[in-house]
């Protein structure tokens, strides 16, 4: 499902980040960051309500166990995000009261959907879609100092990325661990996307594009710690956007990779 979404070229994000690092137009960078996050969120949410409603109609989802509010929450969240996207074009988006109020509304409506997605075994692609949307909503919540959505797993741990519940649970636990005995665990992602929030860490297509444009691969842990990889040739394309454990020599925030485990 995720592959059908079109993302802004990572080079635009990289340019904005470099401008911010040089000390120029920090307010402009903050505005572009928010607008980029909302654009991603809006793209993810376009098909989500329809897919959510379709999932309610067939096993393994038992819609009879959901409240009436939960059943319509997919569409309500989609509508709230559409309105948020329309307001995000404001030049004063960082202080705009209407945008702030709409973000609060989107988060409030998302709480019911978040609970629904955690109470049933929805299809793995749909669950992965919601994980991405929730991550972006939480990035925005932190930016505007609002209450973030709880990270709730579906029964049995859910199936992310089609890997099945057991593999997904193991991968999530490994990524959360950060440094582990014998290696470092996290997502293999390009250096720029590593700084743009968890919603980008598992976007393998974007990572590949950024690497082709000359960016380097880093390892970013679940809590956002970034580790440089000294020998880039050891990182294979099939690990882009994946949770891995890199084994090798660690010196500060740099690892020289000897091997890796997925």
Describe this structure in words.
The protein has 262 residues and is an alpha+beta fold. The chain folds into two domains: 2-157; 165-261, no CATH class. The protein has ten helices and six strands; from the N terminus they run ααααααααββααββββ. The protein has helices spanning 10-21, 26-45, 48-55, 68-71, 73-87, 97-119, 124-143, 165-177, 198-201, 204-212, and strands spanning 179-180, 183-190, 217-220, 226-229, 243-251, 254-261. Strand 3 (217-220) and strand 4 (226-229) form a beta hairpin. Helix 2 (26-45) runs antiparallel to helix 5 (73-87) and helix 2 (26-45) packs antiparallel against helix 7. Mean pLDDT is 80; it is low at 1-9, 14-24 and 157-182.
Concise overview:
This protein is α+β, with helices and mostly antiparallel strands. Helices cover 49% and strands 13% of the residues. The chain has a five-stranded mixed beta barrel.
Jot down its keywords.
disordered N terminus, 262 residues, 2 domains, alpha+beta, 6 strands, 10 helices, five-stranded mixed barrel, globular
Cross-sheet strand order for the largest sheet? 2-3-4-6-5
On the 0 to 100 scale, the average pLDDT is 80
The biggest sheet amounts to: 5 strands, mixed, barrel
What is the 3D shape?
globular
Record the SSE blueprint:
Blueprint lengths: L9 H12 L4 H20 L2 H8 L12 H4 L1 H15 L9 H23 L4 H20 L21 H13 L1 E2 L2 E8 L7 H4 L2 H9 L4 E4 L5 E4 L13 E9 L2 E8 L1
Parallel strand pairs: 4-6
Antiparallel strand pairs: 1-2, 2-3, 2-5, 3-4, 5-6
Helix pairs in contact: 1-2, 2-5, 2-7, 3-5, 5-6, 6-7
């Amino acid at each position: 499902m995720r592959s059908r979404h079109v993302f802004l070229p990572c080079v635009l994000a990289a340019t904005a980040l470099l401008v911010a690092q040089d000390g120029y137009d920090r307010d402009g960078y903050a505005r572009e960051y928010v607008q980029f996050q909302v654009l991603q969120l809006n793209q993810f949410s376009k098909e989500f309500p329809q897919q959510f409603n379709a999932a309610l109609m067939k096993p393994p989802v038992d819609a009879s166990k959901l409240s009436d509010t939960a059943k319509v929450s997919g569409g309500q969240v989609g509508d709230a995000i559409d309105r948020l996207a329309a307001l995000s074009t404001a030049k004063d988006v960082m202080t705009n009261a209407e945008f702030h109020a709409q973000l609060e509304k989107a988060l409030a409506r998302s709480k019911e959907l978040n609970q629904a997605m955690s109470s049933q075994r929805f299809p793995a692609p749909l669950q992965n879609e919601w994980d991405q949307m929730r991550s972006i909503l939480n990035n925005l919540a932190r930016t505007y100092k609002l209450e973030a959505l709880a990270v709730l797993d579906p029964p049995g741990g859910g199936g992310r990325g089609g890997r099945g519940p057991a593999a997904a649970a193991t991968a999530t636990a490994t990524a959360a661990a950060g440094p582990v005995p014998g290696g470092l665990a996290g997502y293999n992602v390009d250096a720029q996307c590593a700084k743009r929030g968890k919603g980008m860490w598992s976007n393998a297509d974007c990572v590949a594009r950024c690497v082709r444009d000359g960016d380097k691969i880093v390892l970013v842990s679940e809590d956002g710690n970034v580790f440089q990889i000294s020998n880039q040739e050891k990182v294979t394309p099939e690990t882009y956007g994946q949770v891995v454990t890199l084994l090798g020599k660690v010196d500060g925030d740099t690892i020289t990779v000897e091997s890796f485990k997925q």
